[in-house]
Design brief:
This protein is 36% helix and 16% strand. The chain is built from eleven helices and 13 strands. The longest helix has 19 residues. The radius of gyration is 20 Å and the shape is globular. It binds magnesium ion. Magnesium ion binds next to loops.
C-alpha cells in the first residue's frame, strides 16, 4: 500500500456552550480534518485540533492555526510522504521530522490517518497496532470551562447524574473564585467524585500557587494541573504541597518528561496524541512516564470525533493511563442519549455517536480508528 494524496479540510463545529480556559483567545472547534488516500482505495482520517494560543512553557512550542496546518501538510508533509508505505510508522515519523521541524499537530493528524488506514487494510482496530486492548472502557473527566460558579455547579450535578466520576474545573484567572468554586462543587457533588483543577499556567508564581492549592486541600483534589509556567516553578509547587501535580503545558515530549522526572516537577503527565506529534510518539512519552513511576491521563483540545477516536485508541492501549481522560464523548446531533456528559459541541462530523455508559466511553473494535465521516456534515461545517 502506498500513500497517494493527503487532503486538508478546515471545519468549524458549533459549541454547546462557550468553553474557555486561561490563555484561550479563540473559539474551540475550528480545526483541520485530513484524509490520507492510498493506491488501494483505502482512506485514513486524522485531525489537527490547532489553537494559536496553545503552546509550551515560555514559547517552547508554538501555537498552530488551520492556515499553518494546511500549508505545512499540503506543501511539506504530503510531498515528503508521497509513495511511502503508511504501515512503516517509525519511518513515516522520521520522514516528517526531516521534512520540517516542529508542527506536532500536523504530524499527529497524519499519524492518526496512518493508524486508521493501516488498521482498515489489516482489518484490526488501531489499538491493535499500539500494543493491543488494555482496557475496554475509558473513564472520562467532564471539563467545566471558565464559567460562573452557579452554572458550574449545575453542570457538575448533571454530569454526575449521567455517571461521570471526575469533574475537571478550569481556573487560573481569579484565585479567590477558584477556591470558592472548588468548595461549592465539592459541597454539591459530595465526597465520592473526583475533582481536579486546571490552572493553565495561570497562577503568577509558585508561592501564589502553593497558597491557593493549600486552601483547596480540604476539598480533596485529585490533582492540580499546570498551576504555573515552567518546569522549575512546577517543581517548587510540587515540593510544597500534598496534592498531586499534573504537567500539561510543560510536558509535550519524552524529553520534557525526563526533565520533569529529574526535577520532580509533577506526579502525573497529561498525555496527548497531539503534543508529541501523534500516537506513535505518545506511546514513547507514556513509556518514559511509566518507567519513572508517574501516571498519566489522556487529555486534549476538545477534538471532534476524528481526533477523539485517536485519543480513545491511545487510552485503550496504554497501561499507565490510569486517570480519568478529558476525551469528549463525540456525538452527532440527534444521535446521543440526550445528555451533556463529555459533550462540548452541538454536532459532530462522524456518522455515529461514541458509545457512552456510566461515565465511560466503551472502546469500539471496528477497524482503524473505528469511525466514518459524515460527508454532508463535512460540507456543512467546512470553512473554506
Ligand atoms: Mg490542561
Amino acid at each position: 500500500m502506498k500513500i497517494t494524496k493527503i487532503e486538508t479540510i478546515p471545519i468549524r463545529l458549533p459549541t454547546r456552550r462557550v468553553h474557555r480556559w486561561a490563555s484561550l483567545t479563540t473559539p474551540i472547534g475550528v480545526y483541520v480534518i485530513i484524509k490520507l488516500y492510498t493506491d488501494q482505495g483505502l482512506t485514513g482520517l486524522g485531525e489537527a485540533p490547532v489553537l494559536k494560543d496553545w503552546g509550551g512553557d515560555h514559547g517552547k512550542y508554538f501555537g498552530e492555526t488551520p492556515q499553518t496546518t494546511a500549508h505545512i501538510i499540503n506543501d511539506i508533509l504530503a510531498p515528503a510522504l508521497h509513495g511511502q508505505d503508511p504501515g512503516r510508522f517509525e519511518t513515516m515519523h522520521a520522514l516528517m521530522d526531516k521534512a520540517v521541524k516542529g508542527y506536532p499537530y500536523c504530524k499527529a493528524a497524519i499519524d492518526a490517518a496512518l493508524y486508521d488506514v493501516v488498521g482498515k487494510a489489516l482489518n484490526v482496530p488501531a489499538y491493535q497496532l499500539l500494543g493491543g486492548l488494555f482496557r475496554e472502557r475509558i473513564p472520562i473527566a467532564h471539563s467545566l470551562g471558565l464559567m460562573e460558579i452557579e452554572k458550574a455547579v449545575e453542570e457538575a450535578l448533571q454530569a454526575k447524574a449521567e455517571g461521570v466520576k471526575t469533574i475537571k474545573l478550569k481556573g487560573g484567572v481569579e484565585h479567590k473564585r477558584d477556591v470558592e468554586l472548588v468548595q461549592q462543587i465539592r459541597r454539591a457533588i459530595g465526597p465520592d467524585l473526583n475533582i481536579c483543577v486546571d490552572a493553565n499556567q495561570g497562577y503568577p508564581s509558585a508561592k501564589a500557587a502553593v497558597k491557593i492549592i493549600r486552601a483547596m486541600e480540604e476539598y480533596n483534589l485529585l490533582y492540580m494541573e499546570q498551576p504555573v509556567e515552567g518546569i522549575d516553578q512546577m517543581a517548587e509547587v510540587a515540593r510544597r504541597v500534598d496534592t498531586p501535580i499534573m504537567a500539561d503545558e510543560s510536558a509535550w515530549t519524552a524529553q520534557d518528561v525526563i526533565e520533569i522526572v529529574q526535577k520532580k516537577a509533577a506526579d502525573v503527565i497529561s498525555l496527548y496524541t497531539t503534543k508529541p506529534g501523534g500516537m506513535f510518539k505518545a506511546k514513547k512519552v507514556a513509556a518514559v512516564a511509566e518507567a519513572a513511576g508517574l501516571k498519566c491521563n489522556v487529555n486534549g483540545s476538545v477534538e471532534t470525533g476524528v481526533g477523539n477516536a485517536a485519543n480513545i485508541h491511545l487510552a485503550a492501549s496504554t497501561g499507565v493511563v490510569t486517570y480519568g481522560c478529558v476525551v469528549p464523548v463525540s456525538t452527532p446531533k440527534g444521535k446521543g442519549k440526550g445528555g451533556i456528559a463529555g459533550i462540548y459541541y452541538q454536532d459532530d462530523i462522524i456518522t455515529e455517536a461514541f458509545d457512552y455508559a456510566d461515565g465511560d466511553v466503551i472502546v469500539s473494535s471496528k477497524p482503524g480508528l473505528g469511525i466514518e465521516l459524515d460527508e454532508d456534515k463535512i460540507k456543512h461545517y467546512r470553512v473554506s
